[in-house]
From TrEMBL:
Alphabetized GO MF terms: ABC-type oligopeptide transporter activity; ATP binding; ATP hydrolysis activity
An annotated GO cellular component: plasma membrane
ABC transporter domain ranges (all copies): 363-603
Native source organism of the sequence: Tumebacillus flagellatus
Main location: membrane
Protein name: ABC transporter ATP-binding protein
Domain ABC transmembrane type-1 positions: 36-317
Keywords, alphabetical: ATP-binding, Cell membrane, Membrane, Nucleotide-binding, Transmembrane, Transmembrane helix, Transport
Membrane topology, from the record: Multi-pass membrane protein
Lineage top rank: taxon: Bacteria
Chain segments annotated as transmembrane: 34-55, 149-169, 175-196, 261-283
InterPro entries in UniProt: AAA+_ATPase (IPR003593), ABC1_TM_dom (IPR011527), ABC1_TM_sf (IPR036640), ABC_transporter-like_ATP-bd (IPR003439), ABC_transporter-like_CS (IPR017871), P-loop_NTPase (IPR027417), Type_1_exporter (IPR039421)
Subcellular localization(s) per the UniProt record: Cell membrane
A Pfam family assignment: ABC_tran
Length: 612
């Protein structure tokens, strides 16, 4: 497992506050109305503890007076008390209602933003480990963190309102009480800040270990991995690795928890001491009849409230610092530069629309060399060939010789190559890239198996024919899977795969034929097929190639083949080795040359030959 250890200092924690603008915009965009309503509700709720306190004090004083001399209106005090309680309950209900909805909207917005960003990335980004890691970090807990952070900010506001109101109340009694409370809370804030900081640094440095643990649990629950894990008896091996990671975490967590317990106990003792001292003062004044029973209640409550709300403000500030760093990961991902050209760059050059491409008539590689971004090794070197309409090229060669990379350049999935790629005789990048890619049908080596209906599995190759049964069945026929589809319980509407309830299970070869049908559902000029026969049995292979050849008669075709018998069908064979085209010609020409191709062909033939 990869991943670099992260060194995070307090400076970085403070720096991460710069994301607040973006976070606010994100929350605002989710629903400005809810944002304002919830903020107002939190502020109003901040006054509730003080109002309850004042109403209770008023009620007690009224009752005491009424009992002793009948001078006070108990009923109006009671009405105030009920009114304040109803006000608080009403606000809480409204807050719960809006919060539930708003939280959902924010989490939807975050997910949409992540997906929209992923859509703007290019293949170079998707194949880049650092980008993938950043994506994982950004996804971590992102569904709840932005909202939690928002409510914690509001919690700070809300508690500040409570704090200020109770402090004013106390100042009217004895101003220095507020100073004592402030000092004791400050002491606990700074001591706990130290522990929190240590805990945070540890949590952040754990990111790669978390990912590793996640990967083990992912493997143990993945249907595709089950067979190997069961037969190689890897279950306990992975489980032990998982357990070790969490056991190590636990040891460190226990140490931090003990430290926290020691400091918190000290703080609690200090708080309790100051609280007891001040409450003693209030009780003594009540005994000396300097204040009434109601006021005694009011002061005791105000002292406790001041202390708890100050504590909550500090706790929230600490936890906001912590959230900040996670949220930063989201914004780092959202602002990653993309290797994919923007739509504007795909379709315009110097402010003018690029040439519209009607059809691809030819594609030529002129001394093309290519190095993957972030690497040093040239994986294609001086590759040259020409492909015209009606022709079909087979690319053969050892593993890692650059065949798939060549198809990535042909389909314009990577830029930044040296040399020239010409389409219809003109540089590929002078054509409207959107239209160019629309004229290409592809089957990748690692083609997709969509856990969806047959209709979608084929129609995703050309959304225009999604409802055209005739065209979809025609595409299935072109890979010899038409009759199979017609015999399925719901024909084109049959669901495929394990994730869908009652999904039809297909074999590897059947999935591959579906993927080829998807490419053929697209009315393209150029078809690029990367080992389209890898999962096909010899009879199916023959049948599929027969059909592919018919279909490609008046198109441009490129296919990668490891089984050289299929390469015989091609008009030209490119033999690649170490990023270079080392031989080029028809099957007969290459056999005659008696070079690498001829040797590969003979080795393969020997393999299949049954010795008498
Ligand atoms: N995304 C990537 N980033 C960096 N290097 C890559 C990337 N993809 C492939 N390579 C490297 O480029 C070289 C050519 O890979 P490519 O996939 O084109 O080979 P191939 O001929 O298709 O192999 P195979 O027959 O095994 O499918 C390999 O050495 C591989 O390590």
């Amino acid at each position: 497992m990869g991943g670099t250890e992260q060194e995070i200092r307090m400076k970085d924690v403070l720096r991460s506050f710069r994301n607040w603008g973006q976070l606010f915009r994100l929350i605002w965009n989710a629903n400005p109305g809810y944002l304002i309503q919830i903020t107002v509700l939190y502020l109003l709720l901040g006054t509730a503890p003080f109002l309850t306190l004042a109403a209770t004090q008023h009620l007690i004083n009224a009752v005491v007076s009424a009992v002793s001399d009948g001078t006070r209106d108990v009923y109006s005090a009671f009405a105030w008390f009920v009114g304040v309680t109803a006000f608080q309950q009403g606000l809480t209900l409204a807050k719960t209602y809006y919060e539930g909805l708003f939280q959902q909207l924010i989490s939807n917005t975050v997910q949409e933003k992540l997906m929209e960003k992923a859509l703007t990335l290019g293949l170079a980004d998707m194949e880049n480990t650092a980008v993938q890691e950043q994506l994982k970090r950004a996804q971590q807990d992102m569904l709840f963190r932005p909202y939690q952070m928002f409510t914690q900010m509001l919690g700070v506001l809300n508690n500040l309102v409570t704090l200020i109101s109770t402090m004013l109340f106390l100042i009217a009694w004895k101003w220095w009480v507020v100073l004592v409370l402030g000092a004791t809370t400050g002491v606990s804030f700074f001591t706990i800040l130290r522990v929190n900081r240590e805990q945070f640094l540890i949590a952040f440095q754990r990111a790669p270990k978390y990912r590793e643990a996640w990967y083990y649990s992912f493997l143990l629950t993945l249907d595709k991995a089950f067979k190997e894990i069961r037969l190689y008896q890897l279950g306990t091996f992975f489980l032990d690795k998982f357990k070790t990671i969490y056991r190590d975490f636990y040891v460190v967590d226990r140490r931090i928890a003990k430290k926290r317990l020691v400091w918190s106990s000290g703080n609690q003792a200090l708080n309790l001491l100051s609280l007891a001292g001040m409450i003693f003062l209030a009780v003594r004044e009540a005994f000396q009849k300097m204040i009434g029973v109601g006021n005694l209640y009011g002061y005791v409550q105000a002292i406790t409230l001041t202390q708890t709300s100050a504590q909550t403000v500090f706790d929230n500030v600490l936890s906001i610092c912590q959230h900040n760093l996670y949220i930063e990961q989201l914004f780092v991902f959202l602002s990653l530069p993309s290797s994919e050209p923007t739509l504007q760059r795909k379709t315009t050059v110097n402010g003018e629309a690029k040439r519209p491409l009607e059809t691809i008539e030819s594609m030529e590689f002129r001394r093309v060399s290519f190095t993957y971004p972030g690497t040093k090794r040239e994986v294609l070197r001086d590759v040259s060939f020409t492909l015209r309409r009606g022709e079909c090229i087979a690319i053969v060669g050892r593993n890692g010789s650059g065949k798939t990379t060549l198809t990535k350049l042909m389909t314009q999935l990577y830029e930044g190559y040296e040399g020239e790629i010409l389409v219809n005789g003109e540089p590929a990048d002078t054509w409207d890239m959107e239209r160019l890619q629309k004229r290409i049908g592809v089957v990748f080596q690692d083609f997709m198996q969509y856990e969806m209906s047959v209709r979608l599995n084929i129609g995703l190759g050309n959304l225009d024919v999604l409802d055209d049964d005739e065209k979809l069945l025609h595409a299935s026929d072109s890979t010899g899977i038409g009759d199979f589809v017609r015999n399925l319980p719901k024909q084109l509407n049959t669901d495929l795969g394990r994730w869908v309830v009652k999904g039809e299970q297909l074999s590897g070869g059947q999935w591959q034929r579906i993927a080829i049908a998807r490419a053929f559902a697209r009315d393209a000029d150029l078809y690029v097929l990367d080992e389209p026969n890898s999962a096909l049995d010899p009879i199916a292979e023959n049948e599929v190639f027969e059909k592919i050849r018919n279909l490609l008669q008046d198109r441009l075709g490129v296919f990668i083949a490891h089984r050289l018998a299929s390469a015989r069908f091609a008009d030209m064979i490119l033999v690649m080795d170490n990023g270079q085209v080392i031989e080029q010609g028809t099957h007969e020409e290459l056999m005659e040359q008696n070079g690498t191709y001829a040797e590969m062909y003979r080795v393969q033939n020997n393999l299949y030959e049954v010795k008498a």
